[in-house]
Write a structure and sequence with these properties.
The complex is a heterodimer of chains A (about 325) and B (about 500).
Chain A lengths: L7 H17 L7 E3 L2 E3 L1 H8 L1 H15 L7 H17 L5 E2 L2 E2 L4 H24 L5 H19 L5 E2 L3 H8 L1 E2 L2 E2 H18 L3 H10 L1 H6 L4 H27 L1 E2 L8 H11 L11 H20 L4 H19 L1 H7 L7
Antiparallel strand pairs in A: 1-2, 3-4, 5-8, 6-7
Chain B lengths: L7 E10 L2 E11 L3 E6 L6 H8 L7 E6 L2 E3 L4 H6 L2 E4 L11 H6 L5 E2 L2 E2 L1 H15 L14 H13 L5 E5 L7 H16 L3 E5 L3 H7 L2 E6 L2 E7 L5 H9 L21 E9 L7 E6 L3 E5 L6 H9 L6 E6 L2 E2 L4 H6 L2 E4 L3 H5 L6 H13 L7 H14 L16 H13 L5 E5 L7 H16 L3 E5 L3 H7 L2 E6 L2 E7 L5 H9 L3
Parallel strand pairs in B: 3-10, 3-11, 6-9, 9-10, 15-20, 15-21, 18-19, 19-20
Antiparallel strand pairs in B: 1-2, 1-4, 4-5, 7-8, 11-12, 13-14, 13-16, 16-17, 21-22
Helix pairs in contact in B: 4-5, 12-13, 12-14
Classes of the chains: A mainly alpha (about 325), B alpha/beta (about 500).
The complex binds adenosine-5'-triphosphate (ATP) and magnesium ion.
Adenosine-5'-triphosphate binds next to strand 2, helix 1 and helix 14 of chain B.
């Protein structure tokens, strides 16, 4: 007797939306090859979902520990600003004898380190200062965009750097690069949590923090870890966003994406109350949300409706996951 | 007609969980002015029957009648409106609310300004008096001991007008005095016409207070008996389904362990505002029993020794070195603590039985060396059969286990890492008599292998049975130590109660 995985409803909804498109949206599954690169709605979905997918991978771990990270959108803005200013103002960027502006590798490294530092900051506030996660990360959510503006001198920095832009625009083996970045991050995080005992420890911590301490789990270090992973993911997402528009907009980069990430996690079957988490579910959740957006856009429905439709699907999946709701649906057995 | 209509009548109650047929057509009658004991081994279906009766679970079949009227409560609140008040096995209070708020929650007396706090105060006071609990009503429930919480839960259940009162293992962490007080209250309620269902694993208490006994085994009703017509030995055979003699164990070996040096020594050890003046040594192959009343500091002592709380005075030496432990360092140095409050501080709800049982082993192995699922199964299965945990499928959510079986799983978690010193805080809480003997025998077996234990139990007979020495605590101070040779109930009770 095997119980069904928690993401079964999200997968069902995704299949439903895809089937709907198969019949109702002509050309939805069409894939064209151009210059050795694939194009089509499905590819587009896998490309565009990348930033939210990255954010929600990290968010899954944070939520599993009973936390939440509201700062990821702002962290995207910061890492984007760091990358853009390194590229756009190469004069001031000689550090340790390395010219950061030249090398995509070093720029990416700088963006990831920015995210890591932000994550460590959040993690310290939560684990050492014992501030509630929602409040602790709200700090950086608010202050982070200010920092991003300081980094970019209050301007929208634009640049033209084909090498860096290829992070978002380029393709490898036919698939867009953002897709591969998500695959890489997902694989690393999966291995890190499921091939080691970190996954079990995270779930234990979220399931019962007091008991976790009583069995000797290093809860402080674990919290630092999950917030750091989320920070790094957000740093990478920020660079995809910056590379996509070849610029950094401190006010709008990643705006509200923390909410999309939280939705993707909970649609994917990880409970906000912590404990069991599913990275696969999260990815399905993120893809489901992006598929909805793309569907609505390609069908020419008024974009304002997008949010309403998304909300309805999320509501449906969450209701199906709720035991209380299913209990109410069940026909009441009349005692004999 | 009214003569023959029982107060509460269950007919053919059936309940299935995925993979478990928990109740197989149970019939049950409760009369007015009756205290009816519901007995059976761990996992027999007692709590499930109560949860079906009070609307926590929906029955798959059968009917419930109260005073001849058929009811189908959909949740515990509805059950209360039908006159059924319940204390569940897993204490269900809000830890972040005060004692007073917990007692009146959902039925606060009101006046024109909203909640009438003066009336709340009055009601709380009389409710607490009824169970004889002296605790500041403003304290948060999360801050009081588990036994006090149990009494608060009982006080809450007594605070409503009820015809039927259900108590699922209400006395599992109470001491003799609290039990006596509770029983006095129950007798008075019985005289007032109430019907009371009482679940327990303490057979003494069954014979002391109940009028009739219903025995469940594996989800079936074995029978209903008049208490004074059912010899204890027969009762036990009904519960376990084989003859009671199979439980008897020979006298335990003598506890002479003179050859060894003590590896743990506490001198005037304690924490300001908590226990103080702890003075004892532990050698390998010794069991130190802690005896004392509710609030005497037994649990605090265990928490100090394990490093959950930190000592502020005196010395704590492990292997002749001064130690400042945290749970993590304690575990790495071979010390374990099986906590008293299994729901709040022990189990990982939502995780499987297997994961709950291997988590300490995994912590010891370090995070980068994951114990493979196959190996996890092997470890879990070993202790599932050693402790006779039911049902033996360890992939299931631990929350689906009966209370006593959850307790066994937690014990298995520690046994799996073979600590040289295991602090056992009420390890037999909620465990049926067969398993109690198993656990005491296990402690004895491991002791002979050179392992040491600190054993805390509110059942004095157990403490006396397993301990090499008994440290008596009174008012959060260690007052005396009784050797195994001198330990008998009278001596220990006298030491606990003595006033200087
Ligand atoms: N929510 C649940 N889901 C699945 N199985 C359950 C659930 N609750 C109880 N069970 C199973 O039903 C059976 C009866 O459990 P129940 O809790 O009624 O036992 P009990 O007699 O109260 O035991 P104890 O003395 O240990 O408290 C057990 O096999 C248990 O594993
Ligand atoms: Mg029970």
């Amino acid at each position: 007797m095997k119980s069904m995985p928690s993401w079964i409803y999200a997968l069902g909804a995704l299949i439903f939306v895809l089937l709907f498109n198969a019949f109702a949206t002509p050309g939805f599954f069409e894939i064209n090859v151009l210059d050795g690169r694939l194009f089509g709605s499905v590819i587009d979905i896998l490309n565009r979902v990348a930033p939210v997918a990255l954010l929600s991978l990290g968010m899954t771990l944070v939520i599993a520990t009973r936390g939440v990270d509201l700062s990821v959108g702002a962290v995207m803005a910061m890492s984007g600003a760091v990358a853009a200013s390194l590229i756009a103002r190469p004069e001031g960027n000689i550090l340790l004898g390395l010219n950061f502006g030249d090398s995509v590798f070093l720029i990416v490294l700088a963006g990831l380190v920015t995210g890591l530092l932000c994550g460590l900051f959040n993690g310290l506030l939560v684990s050492r200062a014992r501030i509630q996660p929602i409040v602790a990360t709200l700090l950086l959510m608010v202050a982070g965009r200010g920092v991003a503006q300081l980094i970019s001198d209050g301007q929208i920095i634009t640049f033209s750097a084909p090498a860096f832009a290829s992070i978002a625009r380029g393709a490898t083996l036919g698939m867009p690069n953002p897709f591969w970045i998500v695959v890489l991050f997902a694989a690393v995080i999966l291995v890190l949590t499921r091939w080691t005992a970190l996954g079990l420890f995270i779930e234990s911590l979220g399931s019962n923090p007091i008991a976790a301490r009583n069995v000797g789990i290093n809860t402080g270090a674990l919290l630092l870890f999950v917030y750091s992973v989320t920070g790094v993911c957000a740093g990478m997402a920020g660079m995809i966003a910056a590379a996509d528009i070849q610029g950094a907009d401190a006010n709008n980069a990643g705006l509200y994406l923390e909410l999309d990430a939280i939705l993707a996690v909970s649609v994917g079957g990880t409970l906000l109350s912590g404990g069991r988490f599913s990275l696969v579910g999260t990815l399905i959740g993120a893809i489901l949300m992006q598929t909805l957006t793309t569907t609505i856009l390609t069908r020419g429905v008024a974009p304002e409706l997008t949010l309403v439709v998304k909300a309805l699907v999320v509501l449906a999946v969450c209701l199906l996951q709720s035991p209380t709701f299913l209990h109410m649906l069940r026909p009441k057995k009349v005692a004999a | 007609m009214s003569e023959s209509t029982p107060l509460l009548h269950l007919q053919g109650i059936d309940k299935r969980f995925p993979g478990v047929h928990a109740l197989k057509g149970i019939d049950f009658e409760l009369e007015t002015e009756e205290i009816h004991a519901l007995l059976g081994e761990n996992g027999a279906g007692k709590s499930t029957l109560i949860k079906v009766l009070t609307g926590v679970h929906a029955a798959d079949g059968g009917s419930i009648c109260i005073e001849g009227r058929q009811i189908a409560p959909r949740n515990p609140n509805e059950a209360v409106t039908f006159g059924i008040s319940t204390v569940y096995q897993e204490v269900n209070l809000a830890p972040n609310l005060s004692v007073a708020e917990n007692i009146c929650l959902g039925r606060e007396p009101r006046n024109v300004f909203g909640i009438d706090w003066r009336a709340v105060g009055e009601r709380t006071k009389s409710a607490l008096n009824r169970v004889g609990l002296r605790v500041d009503p403003q304290r948060l429930v999360g801050d009081i001991s588990i036994a006090e919480q149990q009494l608060v839960a009982i006080a809450r259940a007594l605070d409503v007008e009820a015809k039927v009162l259900i108590l699922d293992e209400p006395t599992s962490s109470l001491d003799q005095d609290e039990v006596a007080q509770l029983f006095a209250t129950l007798r008075r309620l019985r005289e007032e016409g109430m019907g009371i269902i009482f679940v327990t694993h303490f057979l003494d208490q069954v014979y002391e207070i109940s009028d009739r006994i219903t025995v469940l085994r594996n989800g079936e009703r074995i029978g209903t008996f008049q208490t004074d017509e059912l010899p204890r030995i027969e009762l036990v055979s009904h519960m376990i389904g084989r003859s009671a003699e199979s439980l008897e164990h020979g006298a335990m070996a003598s506890h002479e362990v003179s050859g060894h040096e003590p590896f743990l020594t506490v001198t005037n050890f304690g924490k300001r505002g908590s226990v103080q003046d702890l003075n004892f040594e532990i050698r390998s192959g010794e069991v130190i029993g802690l005896a004392g009343l509710l609030g005497s500091g037994r649990t605090e002592t265990a928490r100090l020794l394990f490093g959950i709380d930190h000592g502020t005075e005196g010395g704590y030496q492990l292997d002749n070195r001064s130690a400042h432990l945290t749970p993590r360092s304690a575990i790495s140095r071979g010390v374990g603590l099986n906590v008293e409050d299994r729901k709040a501080e022990g189990i990982f709800p939502g995780l499987s039985i297997r994961e709950n049982m291997v988590v300490v082993a995994q912590v010891k192995r370090r995070w980068w060396q994951r114990i493979s699922t196959a190996e996890q199964k092997q470890v879990a299965d070993e202790y599932v059969s050693a402790l006779q945990l039911q049902p033996p499928n360890t992939d299931r959510n631990i929350e689906n286990l009966s209370g006593g079986n959850q307790q066994k799983a937690l014990l298995g978690r520690w046994l799996a890492v073979e600590p040289r010193l295991l602090l056992l805080d009420e390890p037999t809480r909620g465990i049926d008599i067969g398993a109690k003997f198993e656990i005491m025998a296990l402690v004895e077996r491991l002791r002979l292998e050179g392992k040491s234990f600190v054993f805390i139990s509110s059942e004095l007979s157990e403490v006396i049975r397993v301990s090499s020495r008994i440290v008596v605590l009174r008012d959060r101070r260690a007052v005396t130590t009784i050797s195994r040779a001198e330990a008998n109930e009278e001596a220990v009770v006298a030491a606990i109660a003595k006033h200087e």
